[in-house]
């Protein structure tokens, strides 16, 4: 499993960087921090079929940190939800692939991009699935900067109240947001204690370690009575050296030189 | 014949009727199940009801998520908190995704009364009308609530339904027999000299204004607009041709609401002079609902005055 997922993740990173480079806009670092989690979910965990993208029995994934769209598109394209040719048209007028995820794109389960909204939608989906006794998992991926949004905490309170053990939230803890380090902009720690106090089952993992991810998602599956949060310790820009510890590159596409160096890193 | 009570009691009955008629329907609210009477739905179908506490943003997201699983969903709360607090959630989660969510708001306008300005939605129609895909309905009286709610649930996609708070006039006396269609207005009275185009609790005032005008020899048509978006363009253009002058009346601010919608409609095909009775760039305040309507000139007398003014402006 591990070697093939590592190769998938490398492919997703390459595709995401290529997309952002060609679109000449986007959020490379926050996409790359999620690459391993996306590879794990779409190639080892989620029950989805490209041939039947609206299957009611499919697992759902809401990318609440919608600015990481290229890594989601990379996974969906790799799974065959649409042609990888679409990658070249990301963010272009009339393109299928919008700057942020949109339900008109095959495989996208919720339109996102405005931060803070995804967990509430995931809660609603999990309520509907649970009450219809559907064996469906709802995954939602939040950013850490996104934790500043008040609505996150409204939803954090509500999901345990409804006993949603079909809901698994992932928190991409890459420690950077638009203006800089999360702990300098709006301190978040301890996220573990906060979510624990909101009555979630909370797990902390290395978000780039497939064994830890596998153990955490398996534990989430086996946790009954309420939702699970997986806090994934990640590195913004993971896999591409020029992006590491460069908060000013949050919303900056690669130059040609940076793109070539990224492709060398990901070769 | 179904007895017609106040807005909220009729809403409670309508929720239960809708629960029976639409077995997939969910109701979501934010700690106002008693005052919106959605508690009656909860008691019958707890498995199709969600209250998320006092968290309107979350409520809209939850409603959107449930709807994404194929259910029509009603989110009900007071006007300001149903539309303006979660405005962006309605925009991005409901309208952008074109989900089958109905925003049903009590407490529209200053006729809400004692709770005062924070609880009086006077820009909700403008806000909801601006959203792509959103349809906007305003119930004229309690007797119309059930028909409006059923029309909202039957109409695919986002719909906003605005009600008054408690007391309302009696225009429709049988809640089970109100012909109703989204995009269609209702002619309550015919006339040749001026058209009084009203929405919500102002429909009752427009009918009274027509009586005042008739005593002065002026024939006023009275239209219950009902569907602010889409507007009944055919009917409005017909009455513009027929009467040559309009007065709009709404318990809502003067920008972007009923006045704006009527003017936009008429300007496109049949421009005629239009006067308005609305809140003039102001918030409301606490007080008895009827007294506030007098203080802020949301009255039959004001509509009649405006009608006389607008008739003088005819070309």
Series of secondary-structure elements of chain B, N-terminal to C-terminal: HEHEHEHHEHEHEEEHEEHEHEHH
Give the amount of beta strand of chain B, in percent. 15-25%
Name the CATH superfamily assignment of chain A. Answer: Thiamin diphosphate (ThDP)-binding fold, Pyr/PP domains
| Low-confidence parts of chain B | none
Given the C-alpha coordinates, what overall shape of chain B results?
globular
Integer average pLDDT of chain B = 96
- Could you name the CATH class of the largest domain in chain B? Alpha Beta
Our measurement of the CA-to-CA distance between the termini of chain B, rounded to an integer number of angstroms, reads: 46 Å
Q: CATH superfamily of the largest domain in chain B, please?
A: Thiamin diphosphate (ThDP)-binding fold, Pyr/PP domains
Which CATH architecture of the largest domain in chain B? 3-Layer(aba) Sandwich
Give the % helix of chain B.
25-40%
Fill in the keyword field for this structure.
heterodimer; A: 267 residues; five-stranded parallel β-sheet; two-stranded antiparallel sheet; 10 helices; globular; B: 315 residues; Rossmann fold; seven-stranded mixed β-sheet; five-stranded mixed β-sheet
Overview of this protein structure:
The complex is a heterodimer of chains A (267) and B (315). Chain A is an alpha/beta fold. Chain A has one domain (2-265): Rossmann fold. Chain A is built from ten helices and seven strands. Chain A has helices spanning 2-23, 28-32, 35-45, 69-79, 118-131, 150-161, 182-185, 191-197, 210-222, 256-265; strands at residues 60-63, 138-143, 167-173, 176-177, 180-181, 201-206, 228-233. In chain A, the strands form two sheets. Chain A has a five-stranded parallel sheet with strand order 1-2-3-7-6, sandwiched between helices. In chain A, α1 crosses α3 (35-45). Chain A starts with a helix and ends with a helix. Chain B has two domains: 7-162, Rossmann fold (3-Layer(aba) Sandwich), CATH 3.40.50.970; 186-312, 3-Layer(aba) Sandwich (Rossmann fold), CATH 3.40.50. In chain B, strands 2-1-3-4-6-5-10 form a seven-stranded mixed sheet, sandwiched between helices. A five-stranded mixed sheet of chain B has the order 7-9-8-11-12, with helices on both faces. Chain B is α/β, with parallel strands linked by helices and 315 residues long. The model of chain B has no long low-confidence stretch (mean pLDDT 96). The relative contact order of chain B is 0.13. The longest helix of chain B is centred in the N-terminal third of the chain and has 15 residues, at 7-21. In chain B, α9 (233-243) crosses α10 (258-269). Chain B is built from twelve helices and twelve strands. Chain B is 38% helix and 18% strand. The chains are: A alpha/beta (267), B alpha/beta (315). The A-B interface holds A 56, 102-103, 109-111, 113-114, 116-129, 131-132, 150-151, 154-155, 157-158, 161-162 and B 26, 28, 47-48, 50, 52-53, 55, 57-71, 88-89, 92-93, 96-97.
